[in-house]
Automatic annotation (TrEMBL):
Ligand binding (Zn(2+)): D60, D337, H341, D378, H379, H454
Name assigned to this protein: Alkaline phosphatase
The protein's required cofactors: Zn(2+); Mg(2+); Ca(2+)
PANTHER family on file: ALKALINE PHOSPHATASE, ALKALINE PHOSPHATASE, TISSUE-NONSPECIFIC ISOZYME
Binding site for Mg(2+): D60, H171, T173, E332
Keyword Zinc belongs to the record: yes
Location within or outside the cell: Cell membrane; Extracellular vesicle membrane; Mitochondrion intermembrane space; Mitochondrion membrane
Cofactor binding remark: Binds 2 Zn(2+) ions. Binds 1 Mg(2+) ion.
InterPro entries, per the entry: Alkaline_phosphatase, Alkaline_phosphatase_AS, Alkaline_phosphatase_core_sf
Reaction(s) the record says it catalyses: ADP + H2O = AMP + phosphate + H(+); AMP + H2O = adenosine + phosphate; a phosphate monoester + H2O = an alcohol + phosphate; N-phosphocreatine + H2O = creatine + phosphate
Originating organism: Mus spicilegus
The entry's keywords: Biomineralization, Calcium, Cell membrane, Disulfide bond, Glycoprotein, GPI-anchor, Hydrolase, Lipoprotein, Magnesium, Membrane, Metal-binding, Phosphoprotein, Signal, Zinc
């Protein structure tokens, strides 16, 4: 039950809050609803074309509360109240929910989930590109339990493929596209235990360069894992933490170059200037590693050295769209997750807004007629916002009243646990005494932890383009790549593709039977 004190405070605040004049008229809401209804009725005509192209946007840690808060932030960055704003993903016609648990974890991690939404099978926490028969850290449980990803299926079908991320290119999400590892943390051989090395397991950076040697586009961070131990970084010459990590002495950048045919145009770049100077029409293979580790947060990004996610996506698409057979592109907004783990909601939400901008860029460069676009998250976080805030309240602002228990103000954004737990003189910190709008402000949390944790609730799946309607309800997370493969006629399940038996290239409308009556066979 809400106390009378709170009722009075909330009522006064909401009475004085801003209401746009047009919204005072009931006809505004009725007309809006009727327009939405008209658009919904158009969806009765399903897009059953073959998806020549598939783009998957993965917001790491982008739970529903993060989507909502990012929507408000996007609007407020454009000087609006925010709540009425539409994210690019909000415009997608089909929405589903994904159950994110790992085979051995109720609340999942990014490795087991990546295996699910890229490889089509659920897996144990901390493992990538392997089935649940592989146990984390146990190298000798890997062999024979490898599972391949939709990126591999697309490449095998003759399509171009790409990976773009704001994390290390050998981080959990991208690594499931090409690697098979009993431990997500085996970034280079420097991070592997002697036992795993002696048993023949390879680190993830090594696998990036050797497992699928002809990935057309790779962009993100992770330079140091490609170079021999203590090799000075090209950008941070005095930073010891940026130096090469490899114990085997390999220069994986040179190895990447050596694998490319001489008649092809291959380019390695390490900064934004080099990237934007490229002519994509003359690039066949691109490797861009813009930081020793993860890329910088969008709010901290150096515009000279680090490209934005949107810029990387644009370059990737200009390269990949040259293939007449189409492409598969994985795009990860990976540092949404990192911002939340650090309790820095402002960093996390700006990362989400930048990913939404990249989604818009991709939409402008492709067509729903032949491109299936899926936007989802691997898991959520214990991030929330509330406190009866009035319309237009800064998403990073205070709730309109103080606590009726400790008489102190509180921000609308809070975490269930994390590093923002602070006690001053035996009491909760008074947030009015700190700069809670700072980029690195750590929002208060209920339980003290050095790193905030993931959340276990379902996450949203947004879809548009061919066969997007197959993402329509509450699904197991591993269902997602089966839909993408089915739509693009790749992988093992090709019975529905009219062109499959003839070996010819698929054309729009080539799917045979009404998809409502077709069942998905396993891809393995």
């Amino acid at each position: 039950m809400i106390s009378p004190f709170l009722v009075l405070a909330i009522g006064t605040c909401l009475t004085n809050s801003f209401v746009p004049e047009k919204e005072r008229d009931p006809s505004y809401w009725r007309q809006q609803a009727q327009e939405t209804l008209k658009n919904a009725l158009k969806l009765q005509k399903l897009n059953t074309n073959v998806a020549k192209n598939v783009i998957m946007f993965l917001g790491d840690g982008m739970g529903v509360s993060t989507v909502t808060a990012a929507r408000i932030l996007k609007g407020q960055l454009h000087h609006n109240t925010g709540e009425e704003t539409r994210l690019e993903m909000d415009k997608f016609p089909f929405v589903a929910l994904s159950k994110t648990y790992n085979t051995n974890a109720q609340v999942p991690d990014s490795a087991g989930t990546a295996t699910a939404y890229l490889c089509g099978v659920k897996a144990n926490e901390g493992t990538v590109g392997v089935s649940a028969a592989t146990e984390r850290t146990r190298c000798n449980t890997t062999q024979g339990n490898e599972v391949t990803s939709i990126l591999r299926w697309a490449k095998d079908a003759g399509k171009s493929v790409g990976i773009v991320t704001t994390t290390r290119v050998n981080h959990a999400t991208p690594s499931a596209a090409y690697a098979h590892s009993a431990d997500r943390d085996w970034y280079s051989d420097n991070e592997m235990p002697p036992e795993a090395l002696s048993q023949g397991c390879k680190d993830i950076a090594y696998q990036l360069m050797h497992n699928i040697k002809d990935i057309d586009v790779i962009m993100g961070g992770g330079r140091k894992y490609m170079y021999p131990k203590n090799r000075t970084d090209v950008e941070y010459e005095l930073d010891e933490k940026a130096r090469g990590t490899r114990l085997d002495g390999l220069d994986l950048i040179s190895i990447w170059k050596s694998f490319k045919p001489r008649h092809k145009h291959s380019h390695y770049v390490w900064n934004r200037t080099e990237l934007l100077a490229l002519d994509p029409s003359r690039v066949d293979y691109l490797l861009g590693l813009f930081e020793p580790g993860d890329m910088q947060y969008e709010l901290n990004r150096n515009n000279l050295t680090d490209p934005s996610l949107s810029e990387m996506v644009e370059v990737a698409l200009r390269i990949l769209t040259k293939n007449p057979k189409g492409f598969f592109l994985l795009v990860e907004g990976g540092r949404i997750d990192h911002g939340h783990h650090e309790g820095k909601a402002k960093q996390a939400l700006h990362e989400a807004v930048e990913m939404d901008q990249a989604i818009g860029k991709a939409g402008a460069m492709t067509s729903q007629k032949d491109t299936l676009t899926v936007v989802t998250a691997d898991h959520s976080h214990v991030f929330t916002f509330g406190g009866y805030t009035p319309r237009g309240n800064s998403i990073f602002g205070l709730a309109p009243m103080v606590s009726d228990t400790d008489k102190k103000p509180f921000t609308a954004i809070l975490y269930g646990n994390g590093p923002g737990y602070k006690v001053v003189d035996g009491e909760r910190e008074n947030v009015s005494m700190v700069d809670y709008a700072h980029n690195n402000y750590q929002a208060q949390s209920a339980v003290p932890l050095r790193h905030e944790t993931h959340g276990g609730e379902d996450v949203a799946v947004f879809a548009k383009g061919p066969m997007a309607h197959l993402l329509h309800g509450v699904h197991e997370q591993n269902y997602i790549p089966h839909v993408m493969a089915y739509a693009s006629c790749i992988g093992a399940n090709l019975d529905h593709c009219a062109w499959a038996s003839s070996g010819s290239t698929p054309s729009p409308g080539a799917l045979l039977l009404p998809l409502a009556v077709l069942s998905l066979r396993t891809l393995f």
